[in-house]
Amino acid sequence: MTLDAQKHVTMYRVRYSDTDKMGVVYHGGYLRLFEIGRTEFLRDRGLPYSELENSGYMLPVLESHCEYLLPAHYDDLLEIHTIVEPMQGARLTIRYEITRQSSTLVVGWTRHTFVRSETFRPTRPPSTFLELVGEHT
Fold this sequence. Notes:
Layout: E1 7-13, H1 29-44, H2 49-54, E2 57-58, E3 61-68, E4 77-84, E5 91-100, E6 103-113, E7 115-116, H3 127-132
């Protein structure tokens, strides 16, 4: 797979409930947008997160980071750019860029590891995941 195969764009319309008293998207809401981006990345590649869970895997967030550059407002149409980086051992880093038209509003990342759902202990990612991100099994 090429690097492009590890990217995905999800469209998201800002809802009134996403905004705070100042009329901008609440800062914590961007982590939810990151989650939307990564779950849609997986779904688009034919591996919905529910399928991972049904096969005994979970992908908890270990760390997250956001940089807020410009505010988003009610009814803005946003693009959530999701980029899955190559695996680093058992860790997976996913980068995000949230844009409105040609303006970058937020950049950030989340770091994950795969765990078995019955033990919550770290494990090697399933081969289906490694294949979809272009990793060799």
